[in-house]
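for the recovery benchmark. tokens below, seq after
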């Protein structure tokens, strides 16, 4: 009886887990500094703000699903004069479609390819939470100058396992988001910022990812942001300064 109940629970969670991973908000991103572009025949939507700096930043948000919730991260680059291109996720903020790991990763590569065709200078990828998996995925397959990660995970299915008491990384049809698998293909310097009070993605996951990158021979800078939670990390004092110092610390050409 207990085994049958557990198997039924597992089946329900396999079907329902995308709704848990992608609880996207409906608030539209309405910032006059940005324009929206449809950048491929996949109908990929990107919000872009032009800057004067040689660096351009391709930003991947968390699972809030609307760029309206990520103004601190966007401001960090706009204030520094960088061009910012931010992927808008299908199913969030009024964007048509249904999100999935495979689809979002394909959209992220399409957004990079469009930005690379528009921008002559180097490109940095920046991800927050869910978006760190997209940033790492792109950096493992495209030429990027640096990788910025806020509150990253090693594998999202490990977090699902902890929250559901199911072996999510081994269940069929589960979207697993294995960032660790892409680490060997990275070759750009990495900045990780993670809050010590983050309960959604505990800082230990960011530390494990940083260690794996260090073992792979990457240049990794890991900042423990004292007292920061998952949702207020980008609003903490020093957040922008750390990004600026990191990006100013290596050659752009």
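predicted aa per position
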């Amino acid at each position: 009886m207990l085994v049958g109940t557990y198997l039924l629970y597992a089946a329900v969670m396999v079907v329902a887990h995308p709704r848990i991973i992608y609880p996207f908000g409906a608030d539209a991103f309405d910032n006059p500094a940005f324009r929206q572009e449809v950048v491929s025949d996949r109908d990929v939507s990107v919000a872009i703000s032009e800057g004067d700096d040689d660096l351009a930043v391709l930003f991947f948000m968390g699972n809030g699903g609307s760029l309206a919730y990520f103004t601190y991260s966007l401001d960090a680059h706009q204030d520094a004069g960088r061009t910012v291109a931010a992927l808008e996720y299908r199913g969030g903020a009024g964007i048509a479609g249904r999100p999935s790991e495979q689809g979002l990763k394909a959209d992220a590569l399409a957004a990079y390819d469009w930005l690379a065709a528009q921008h002559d200078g180097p490109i940095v990828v920046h991800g927050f939470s869910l978006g760190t998996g997209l940033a790492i995925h792109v950096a493992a397959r495209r030429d990027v100058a640096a990788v910025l990660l806020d509150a990253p995970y090693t594998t999202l299915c490990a977090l699902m396992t902890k929250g559901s008491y199911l072996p999510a990384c081994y269940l069929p049809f589960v979207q697993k988001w294995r960032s660790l698998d892409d680490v060997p293909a990275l070759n750009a310097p990495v900045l990780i910022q993670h809050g010590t009070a983050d309960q959604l993605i505990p800082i230990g996951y960011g530390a494990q990812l940083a260690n794996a990158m260090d073992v792979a021979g990457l240049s990794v800078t890991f900042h423990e942001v004292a007292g920061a939670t998952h949702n207020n990390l980008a609003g903490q004092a020093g957040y922008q300064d750390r990004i600026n110092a990191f990006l100013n610390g290596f050659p752009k050409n």
